[in-house]
């Protein structure tokens, strides 16, 4: 295990270097991790304790004590492969200082102009980086200026070509440092040259692992587990962060959780890790746990907006109106023009049943970030609620085109088409969604219902789907009941009895009652009676007697029939005698 | 145009439009502007016409670069060229800041002459075409924001810079070029000659093959080797890919535009028009259209304009034609997901057709059933009519090989009411329904295609009462040629509808391009060729064709009606009519039709050649057709080749080869894609004939019997008739004339009820032969039968049939005891000579030997020994050729 002290020293140096190069978000991330490391009890300062006190009580409930002392996961790494970053150029040149101030004031072109003749690595990087950002800024402006009726225009970052030329020349001559490599990777990625970009980023993180921006860029280029495994990364604790994040994006939630668990041993107070863990748990549908984690997170970091949309989803699922409105209000005051904020407000209105307003806020979120996946999907849900199926389909389709692995949107598409009375067409979409999430019983049940519609009436296929749903631990118990009914409809009484019994077991275990229960009992009683298994039939009949209503009468008459048959009288149904 | 509106903003100012404005300023100078002294009125008019064409084509997606524009100007300008180009460049270089653009447009306003007018000033009428163009430009410019003006300004810089770069390079390399060209002149000339020669040849082969049935000697020599070796095939395929100018040029222009794309924004209308053009191209060229360049282009276009959803549809089409199921499905669904509001039934219809094309008829049927339901729900009658037509098409295509169980699972009201009916009856009902709806909705194209489908149905299927009550009701089997003709005629009404309507049903943006092209072409004519008189007619036709501009789909339909006419005449037995209709198709509709239809026409023509002119011509034509259609997937050319080779081998007596061809045909019939019933039947028919030729009578009869059963099972009535005839033939050959008679008679009655006149004539001939086989006392009767069938045989029959009839006639006379050779020899000799001539062309050794034998016998009787020897020598030659076929044709291996 890495010693906490060495981690701390590494990060401290790294933050200084990163912010010196104006890589602010990477510096921010590193800073968060730095405070996330548990303090040595020996050098507590009052301020430190104050910062960390609030969380501990709740955190203890979930970060199991073993996880801190767990033996290292299989990917144990040899330490200290990377030397501590050296402080280059203790005193920056005057020009560099000027350029950095310009940069901080967002005058990128001025900054790069100041550094035009500087040859040190640091200056070259800042010059290129400023140029890149200037190009990005211009690109975004042009995008709005040139926006035609057919959507986005062809605005591009016009600096990319010259940047690529310069950086590749530097790389060839070997006069490029790890930050330059990072920028080179970013430029290559923008130009669409993914494999080269990956190589460059790998080189960058291998020589300087503390740049989280480089890792995130690399992660966005790992679209499959094969690519991820083929990367040649040297071991460092930053790699663990990277892998955890990459696993999560590749929907390998348990692997990801294991990594985060391990990292929490060192960074036990890291908000980042906590949020990521919550994300993974959310995907595993552990809503209660996620809610507590987010509450905790907000207590420590009350002005956090990142990841809060996920929290709002949880609150939505739990129908916690008040909590959701509180959250919405809070993020609204913090920063109302964040896509996450708009999404949270949209969620709130949706929960209140005000779908038009919800759509408006989702639209606003999308205006701020066109590629905001969950807003598209949620907007689709709203349109479905508003019975505006075509708009819903459009929204879902956009989500799917942004990320083809989004099973929610595929499912939404299927649902919308089923609503349109096109079950056969819908099947394709359900199949797609199941392909990405084969272990979810809800999807299987939706597909089965599609097969069951009177237009298709493909019962055999429906039965197959329900069976899969049962295997995926169907929590709502629809599948068993439907299986029994379908078999009954097809005249396969043995199978029907089997599934009714199972369903009954389930309901007993969960302590549920209801019409399904009566139905199962009545069927089983009659079934066993006709098969002359009177004891079983009697058991079910007596259970029925506990309830009032027509079932009770039915049970009575059944019992009478059973008695009659047992005592050898010719079996006859008294009820059917004409009076 | 899905959800896209034509707004005023659909017109944007581009550097090219500014060029046009500058030229307009020269054409109609405002008062204070120095004008060019035009030498003559015609010169001035020429410029005006050119400008008119430029403004007309301003909605085209491809805008010429400055260099291209200057090039065109050089062609137009004559003496004023230098001045024009100089002026243009000068004007552009004077635009050095955004403010200059403002003043430029202010000046342009002056040429509209809405102020006071001087005497000799030429004014543009603000409502004329040119005036409108100027006004639109000014309006569009005024609507621009300052950012927009800046963008326009920077794109003008690029527009001009390119030209300058180019001319600089050009100047530098000019000297080199000159020396080079001089040096290479001779070579180049030589190459050019070669190329034009080749072109001419190809043109002959493609365009006017039908007119030159006597293929030129040179061509014949080229195609002498009947089988192409693999290497050659490779070479030809390479050549054809090189020689697909459409694909290449379009793809190259596509690349070019992409380069431009970053400079100029296109309007909706332009892009939509362009996409429609591309879609047409994909459809016409089918799989021979190389799909990858267009795919990459579409991808880029999608990046540039993500809201342009029609791109998805085009990608779907492209993938469909390159047989990529998954991407096609993906793109289709994506397209319809994006095209909102009430188009779901159309999505289903398209999906159904896609499944059908990829060979999933059951899936297709399910989807189409859902389409029927949804369009009923949304009361979209148009879509319903189309869906029903698609369904009937599907059923009739797969119906032959399918059993009714396929249809069991569908619960649609339409199909379920008909679930007790046979597939054919269901097709009929669906067609009728679709036709009724289409008629009431005035969907003329659908009506026409439904009529054609109906004609096809009438042609192929036996009519009987739809629902049969009682045992006796369904006895009447017959087809009705009158109704077939009626349906075809009704189908062809479409074209008169379109031409009488004076329709402007054009693809957006495409007409204007054609306009410009035509204009240029006409100039080319005037300037370069003075002897255009001879070619006038064809050019006139082109013009007519383009300007009236009948939509491609309509002309395809009309073309299909001609093909169907040809097929129906083929079946009814009128060879000249069939040939004529095919020729009409190949000449008039060859360009606009899909490549598979064109292939079919060629196929029919080649078959005709083989039957009526012999194999040499047929193989020569086949060679040409193969080159033309090599790239078409699922090409039927291979099939045709096997058929021809089989016939040829049978006639020459090379039975081993014949057997091999048979087997290959059988292999083609059942591929992994499914069984082609018609082909399968044909293969076994050929097998039986091969066995017959090998004198293995009982085996041949067995094959024919089982074939008959198959035909009966799958309801192939027409094939039944020919199988019966074959059985009669087998019995005749095996000497069992008595057994053969009932088969021949049955075949004749089949032919009668299906109106297969030619087949009936040939069955009558066989019947007569059978009678003669019973003994010479039946010769009179046989002769009567033959004479009854003679008009049909001589008028429409192929070489073989005619020769057989002639020989048989001679045989009859000779075996008639009352006939004396010495007194009436010419009757016999003439027909025999005729027969032997025709058989010569066919290389049918066996029959030829028989004819020659009879000739020499007659001469013997007449005592003309010299002529007898001559005939006998020929006879011997044929017999030898028959006995060892292999060494005569080493190239057949």
TrEMBL record, chain A:
Protein's pathway: Protein modification; protein ubiquitination
**GO annotation, cellular component aspect:** anaphase-promoting complex
**Pfam families, A to Z:** ANAPC8, TPR_11, TPR_8
Kindly state a single biological-process term from the GO annotations of this entry.
positive regulation of mitotic metaphase/anaphase transition
Which parts are the TPR repeats? 339-372, 373-406, 407-440
Q: Which UniProt keywords apply?
A: Cell cycle, Cell division, Mitosis, Repeat, TPR repeat, Ubl conjugation pathway
Q: Known PROSITE patterns for this protein? A: TPR
Q: What SMART domains does UniProt report for this protein, alphabetically?
A: TPR
Q: Does the keyword Cytoplasm apply?
A: no
- Cdc23 domain location is 7-278
Which family is this protein grouped under? Answer: Belongs to the APC8/CDC23 family.
Q: What is this protein called?
A: Cyclosome subunit 8
| Protein source organism | Eutrema salsugineum (Saltwater cress)
Taxonomic path: Eukaryota, Viridiplantae, Streptophyta, Embryophyta, Tracheophyta
């Amino acid at each position: 295990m890495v010693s906490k002290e060495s981690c701390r020293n590494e990060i401290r140096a790294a933050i200084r270097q990163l912010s010196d190069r104006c890589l602010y978000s990477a510096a921010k991330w590193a800073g968060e991790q730095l405070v996330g490391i548990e303090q040595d009890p020996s050098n507590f300062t009052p301020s430190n304790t104050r910062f960390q006190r609030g969380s501990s009580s709740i955190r203890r409930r979930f970060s199991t004590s073993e996880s801190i002392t767990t033996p290292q996961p299989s990917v144990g790494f040899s330490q200290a492969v990377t030397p501590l970053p050296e402080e280059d150029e203790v005193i920056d040149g005057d020009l560099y200082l000027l350029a950095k101030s310009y940069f901080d004031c967002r005058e990128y072109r001025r900054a790069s102009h100041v550094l035009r003749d500087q040859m040190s690595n640091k200056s070259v990087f800042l010059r290129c980086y400023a140029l890149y950002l200037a190009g990005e800024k211009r690109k975004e402006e042009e995008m709005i200026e040139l926006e035609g009726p057919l959507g986005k225009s062809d605005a591009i970052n016009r600096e990319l070509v010259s940047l690529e030329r310069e950086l590749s020349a530097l790389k060839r001559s070997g006069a490029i440092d790890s930050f330059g490599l990072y920028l080179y990777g970013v430029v290559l990625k923008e130009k669409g040259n993914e494999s080269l970009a990956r190589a460059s980023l790998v080189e960058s993180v291998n020589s300087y692992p503390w740049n989280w921006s480089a890792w995130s860029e690399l992660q966005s280029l790992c679209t499959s587990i094969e690519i991820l495994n083929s990367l040649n990364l040297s071991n460092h604790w930053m790699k663990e962060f990277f892998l955890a994040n990459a696993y999560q994006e590749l929907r390998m939630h348990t692997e990801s959780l294991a990594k985060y668990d391990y990292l929490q041993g060192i960074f036990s107070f890291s908000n980042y890790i906590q949020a990521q863990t919550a994300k993974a748990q959310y995907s595993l549908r552990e809503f209660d746990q996620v809610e507590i984690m987010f509450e905790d997170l907000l207590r420590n970091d009350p002005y956090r907006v990142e990841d809060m949309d996920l929290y709002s989803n949880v609150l939505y699922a739990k129908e916690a109106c008040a909590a959701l409105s509180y959250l919405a209000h809070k993020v609204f005051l913090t920063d109302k023009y964040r896509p996450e904020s708009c999404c949270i407000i949209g969620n709130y209105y949706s929960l209140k049943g005000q779908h038009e307003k919800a759509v408006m806020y989702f639209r606003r979120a999308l205006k701020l970030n066109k590629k905001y996946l969950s807003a598209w999907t949620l907007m689709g849900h709203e349109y479905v609620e508003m019975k505006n199926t075509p708009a819903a389909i459009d929204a879902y389709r956009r989500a799917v085109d942004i990320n083809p692995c989004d099973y929610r949107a595929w499912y939404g598409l299927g649902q919308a088409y089923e609503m349109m009375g096109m079950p056969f067409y819908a099947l394709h979409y359900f199949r797609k969604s199941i392909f990405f999430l084969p272990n979810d019983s809800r999807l299987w049940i939706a597909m089965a219902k599609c097969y069951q519609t009177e237009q298709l009436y493909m019962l055999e296929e429906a039965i197959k789907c329900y069976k899969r749903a049962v295997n995926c631990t169907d929590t709502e118990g629809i599948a068993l009941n439907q299986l029994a009914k379908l078999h009954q409809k097809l005249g396969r009484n043995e199978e029907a009895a089997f599934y009714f019994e199972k369903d009954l077991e389930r309901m007993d275990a969960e302590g549920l009652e209801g019409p399904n229960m009566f139905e199962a009992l009545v069927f089983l009683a009659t079934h066993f009676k006709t098969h002359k298994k009177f004891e079983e039939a009697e058991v079910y009949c007596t259970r029925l007697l506990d309830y009032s209503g027509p079932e009770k009468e039915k049970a009575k008459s059944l019992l009478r029939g059973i008695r009659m048959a047992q005592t050898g009288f010719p079996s006859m149904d008294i009820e059917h005698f004409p009076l | 145009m899905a959800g896209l509106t034509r707004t005023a903003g659909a017109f944007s100012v581009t550097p090219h439009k500014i060029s046009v404005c500058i030229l307009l300023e020269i054409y109609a100078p405002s008062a204070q502007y120095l004008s060019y002294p035009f030498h003559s009125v015609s010169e001035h008019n020429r410029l005006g016409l050119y400008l008119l064409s430029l403004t007309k084509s301003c909605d085209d997606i491809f805008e010429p670069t400055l260099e291209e524009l200057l090039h065109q100007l050089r062609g137009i300008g004559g003496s004023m060229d230098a001045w024009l180009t100089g002026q243009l460049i000068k004007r552009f270089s004077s635009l050095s800041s955004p403010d200059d653009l403002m003043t430029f447009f202010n000046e342009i306003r002056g040429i509209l002459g809405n102020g006071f007018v001087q005497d000799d000033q030429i004014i543009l009428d603000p409502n004329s075409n040119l005036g409108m163009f100027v006004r639109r430009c000014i309006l569009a410019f005024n609507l621009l924001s300052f950012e927009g003006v800046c963008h326009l300004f920077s794109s003008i810089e690029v527009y001009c810079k390119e030209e300058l770069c180019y001319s600089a390079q050009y100047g530098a390399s000019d000297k080199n070029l000159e020396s080079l060209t001089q040096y290479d002149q001779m070579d180049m000339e030589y190459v050019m000659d070669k190329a034009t020669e080749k072109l001419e040849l190809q043109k002959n082969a493609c365009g006017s093959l039908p007119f030159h049935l006597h293929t030129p000697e040179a061509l014949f020599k080229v195609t002498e080797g009947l089988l192409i070796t693999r290497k050659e095939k490779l070479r030809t395929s390479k050549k054809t890919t090189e020689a697909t100018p459409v694909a290449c040029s379009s793809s190259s222009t596509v690349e070019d535009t992409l380069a431009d794309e970053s400079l100029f924004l296109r309007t909706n209308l332009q892009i939509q028009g362009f996409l429609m053009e591309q879609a047409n191209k994909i459809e016409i060229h089918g799989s021979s259209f190389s799909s990858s360049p267009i795919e990459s282009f579409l991808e880029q276009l999608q990046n540039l304009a993500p809201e342009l959803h029609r791109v998805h549809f085009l990608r779907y089409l492209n993938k469909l034609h390159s047989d990529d199921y998954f991407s096609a499905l993906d793109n289709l669904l994506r397209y319809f997901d994006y095209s909102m509001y009430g188009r779901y039934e159309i999505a289903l219809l398209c999906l159904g057709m896609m499944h059908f094309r990829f060979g999933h008829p059951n899936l297709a049927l399910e989807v189409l059933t859902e389409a029927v339901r949804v369009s009923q729900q949304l009361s979209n009658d148009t879509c319903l009519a189309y869906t029903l037509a698609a369904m009937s098409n599907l059923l009739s295509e797969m119906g032959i090989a399918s059993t009714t169980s396929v249809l069991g699972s569908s619960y649609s009201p339409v199909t379920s009411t008909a679930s007790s009916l046979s597939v054919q009856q269901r097709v009929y009902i669906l067609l009728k329904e679709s036709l009724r709806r289409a008629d009431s909705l005035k969907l003329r194209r659908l009506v026409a295609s439904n009529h054609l489908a109906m004609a096809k149905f009438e042609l192929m299927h036996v009519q009987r009462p739809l629902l049969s009550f009682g045992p006796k009701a369904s006895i009447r089997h017959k087809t009705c040629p009158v109704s077939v003709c009626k349906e075809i005629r009704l189908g062809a009404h479409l074209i008169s509808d379109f031409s009488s309507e004076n329709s402007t049903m054009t693809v957006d943006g495409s007409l204007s391009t054609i306009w410009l092209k035509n204009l240029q072409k006409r100039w080319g004519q005037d300037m370069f060729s003075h002897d255009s008189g001879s070619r006038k007619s064809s050019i006139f036709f082109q013009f007519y064709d383009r300007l009236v501009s009948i939509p491609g789909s309509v002309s395809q339909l009309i073309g299909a009606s001609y093909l169907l006419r040809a097929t129906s005449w083929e079946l009814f037995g009128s060879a000249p009519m069939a040939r004529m209709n095919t020729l009409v198709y190949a000449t008039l509709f060859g360009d606009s039709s899909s490549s598979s239809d064109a292939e079919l026409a060629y196929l029919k023509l080649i078959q005709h050649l083989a039957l009526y002119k012999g194999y040499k011509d047929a193989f020569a034509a086949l060679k040409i057709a193969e080159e033309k259609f090599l790239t078409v997937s699922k090409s039927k050319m291979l099939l045709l080749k096997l058929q021809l080779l089989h016939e040829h081998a049978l006639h020459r007596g090379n039975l081993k080869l014949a057997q091999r061809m048979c087997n290959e045909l059988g292999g083609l019939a059942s591929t992994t894609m499914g069984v082609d019933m018609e082909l399968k039947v044909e293969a076994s028919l050929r097998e039986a004939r091969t066995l017959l030729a090998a004198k293995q009578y009982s085996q041949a009869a067995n094959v024919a019997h089982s074939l008959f059963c198959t035909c009966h099972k799958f309801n192939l009535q027409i094939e039944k008739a020919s199988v019966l005839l074959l059985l009669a033939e087998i019995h005749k050959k095996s000497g069992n004339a008595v057994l053969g008679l009932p088969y021949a008679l049955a075949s004749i009655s089949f032919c009668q009820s299906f109106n297969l006149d030619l087949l009936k004539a040939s069955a009558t001939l066989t019947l007569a032969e059978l009678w003669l086989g019973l003994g010479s006392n039946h010769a009179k009767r046989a002769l009567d039968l033959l004479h009854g069938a003679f008009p049909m045989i001589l008028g429409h029959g192929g070489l073989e049939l005619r020769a057989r009839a002639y020989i048989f006639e001679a045989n009859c006379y000779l075996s008639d005891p009352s006939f004396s050779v010495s007194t009436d020899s010419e009757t016999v000799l003439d027909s025999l000579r005729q027969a032997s001539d025709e058989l010569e062309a066919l290389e049918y050794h066996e029959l030829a030997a028989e004819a020659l034998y009879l000739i020499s016998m007659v001469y013997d009787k007449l005592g003309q020994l010299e002529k007898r020897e001559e005939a006998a020598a020929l006879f011997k030659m044929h017999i030898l050729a028959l006995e060892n076929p292999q060494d005569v044709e080493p190239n057949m291996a």
